[in-house]
Amino acid sequence: MFDTNEMEIHLSGIGVSPGICIGKAYLVGREGVDIVDKYLISEDNLQNEIKRFKSAVKNAKDKLQEIIEATPEELHEHAYILETHKIMFKDKMLYGKTIETIEKERVNAEWALKKVVSNVKSMFNNMTDDYLKGRAADVLHVSESIMQNLVGAKAVDIAAIDKRVILVATDISPAETSQIQLEKVKGLVTDLGGKTSHTGIIARTLEIPAVQGLDNATRAINNDDIIIVDGNSGTVIVNPTDQTLIEFEERQFRYEEYKAVITRNSHLPAETTDGSKLVVMGNIELPEEVVSVINYGGDGIGLFRTEFQYLSQFDFPSEDELFDQYKDVIEVITPKSVTIRTLDISGDKSVSYATNSDEKNPVLGLRGIRYCLKKPEVFKTQLRAILRASAFGKIRILFPMISCHEEILAAKKILAEVADSLEKEDTPFDENIKIGIMIEVPSAAIMADIMAKEVDFFSIGTNDLIQYALAVDRVNKQVAHLYQPLNPAIIRMIKHVSDVAKNADVKVFMCGEMAGDPVNIPVLIGLGIKRFSMNPQSIPAVKKIIRSLNVEDAKRFTQDVLKETSETGVLELVFQTYGSTLFEIGYAES
Ligand code: PEP
Ligand code: MG
Questions:
Q1: Mean pLDDT over residues 308-320, rounded?
Q2: Is 460 in the pocket of ligand 1 (CB under 6 A)?
Q3: Which one of 148-162, 169-183, 221-235 scores highest in mean pLDDT?
Q4: DSSP per residue, 149-194
């Protein structure tokens, strides 16, 4: 145990929902579900044991249904997450395997469930991706509620908390998070979870600061400890000194002020001072994030990463499941548009049922379009679902990880076959659907003139483009200092793509994180980029800086930028020229 009395402790995790809060810790216990005994079941009693397991599943499912029905208005979009959990109760991997273990090993239901969950956990743990960690959490949440029913433990009643607190837990399930009453819970801190956990997404919608993935928060924090949660930096401070408290109270005040200023005008158009109307859209991973894009003033969805639906279950989703989700998204965002990116699994986003875990360099492996071309049946199912959804609003199709011309031809051929089959069935779809490719592999950037002949638009994926062009792993902290969006090599690549696209009359979007950082915007506008897509929270600040810029000035400025030889030089020039503009939008405070 840590001695938390009197001593200020800094814990570092992943900031999943921005903002700062200060308050008393409320530890959410999970007594009774961790310690489980093993005992053998006689042949005669096996069927009873299975019945006991099935009835625990039913009770847990009924309880979840009650929670879904009691979900407050502002979280209704999230009922989908809980519906997914409802399906998981009967998943083969959890439900089927537990029954099989009871039968085969003649053990009690608790032990069988524990064994199955620990296998699932280790399978997920061997994967490095954030999404998958989030999915492991989903399995745990579902299994935990079954276990609670088996052992008769009381579920955590978040709705019953009667004072203003910050929740601290090993993990908090989406079902629990959705019971949070905003007037009671100031913030969230958990040992597990990460950016793409459902809990994180709900916290962002509720706009409560949250830090996850702290590993040891529940050991380092005691009930009623004063804690500071900084969701911007992913830091939690336990028992802060008076000086730290004053500092963070000031930071909290400045952040709230910054947020109020920045969001006040987020619905104004992203129009430069010389009258160019630019487009600022949001990136989403889950349908429920559409609401954030709208709330933050986004001009549509510039990137719908579709991997999530594949990662959140144990088998490929069906065409109808995919179609339902795409239709939901387009119906909410209409009359604005959505760019649906086809599956970019594998690489670092590997899916247990779909990938070969032996790849030595997964990010250089069977990833994105390469995977889809190798598995045309998986690809076709998704393309059919996207085309069917295109009958309900304006959808664009985006192919990820294109590294050569043949890949576009092959992808388009399959798309044409799918369109043909839909036509034969008289199934409606948008016959003029726009087709684009991600420019995220340097070869695609260099070959942009050739690629442009095949598509309607490009979407520059700087997250990967920087990784591949500068040979810097995008998730490796050791080389984070070399991961430089404004590196002259990257600027030149973007310029090449933008110039080529302009000549070929192909639209260019930028959907990597580079587009969401106001500091990069003057250079990008100077390079001719007019359409940006980013995480929804960044939309207001990017729109705000756009409204203070002049395109012609930015173009002249970028001529000087192109003479710089290092990112440091570029940044110095940006701050010399646009420092006061960035300061005015509160950039230094963000
Ligand atoms: C990118 O690479 O910039 C991108 C937007 O795609 P992802 O982050 O999903 O790889
Ligand atoms: Mg990418």
A1: 80
A2: no
A3: 221-235
A4: HHHTPPPP-GGG--S-EEEEES---HHHHTT--TTTEEEEEESS--
How confident is the model at residue 195, as a pLDDT? 65
Instruction: Report the catalytic residues.
Output: 198, 511
pLDDT tens per residue across span 480-528: 889 999 999 999 999 999 999 999 999 999 998 899 999 999 999 999 9
Digit-coded pLDDT (tens) for 66-81: 888 877 666 666 666 7
- Residue 230: CB within 6 Å of ligand 1? no
302 φ, ψ (degrees, to nearest 5)? -85, -15
Give me ligand 2 centre to Cα 84, in Å: 26
Chain position carrying tokens 């420092």: 579
Which phi and psi (to 5°) does residue 188 adopt?
Answer: -135, 140
**Edge-first strand listing for the sheet containing 185-190:** 9-12, 235-238, 226-230, 20-27, 165-169, 185-190, 210-212, 14-17
Q: Mean pLDDT over residues 248-275, rounded?
A: 92
* Test site for ligand 1: of 463, 467, 493, 535, most ligand atoms within 8 A of the Cβ: 463
Query: What is the residue type of 215?
Result: D
CA–centroid distance, residue 456 to ligand 1 (Å) = 19
Q: Give 425's contacts (C-beta < 8 A, 6+ positions apart).
A: none
Q: Tell me if 299 CB under 6 Å of ligand 1.
A: no
Amino acid at 497: V
Q: By the 8 A CB rule, do 129 and 348 touch?
A: yes
pLDDT at 542 over 80: yes
Structure tokens at 454: 């095949």
> How far apart (Å, rounded) are the C-alpha atoms in residues 429 and 431?
6
Atom of ligand 1 nearest to the CA of 462: 3
Residue 503 tokens, joined? 């000549």
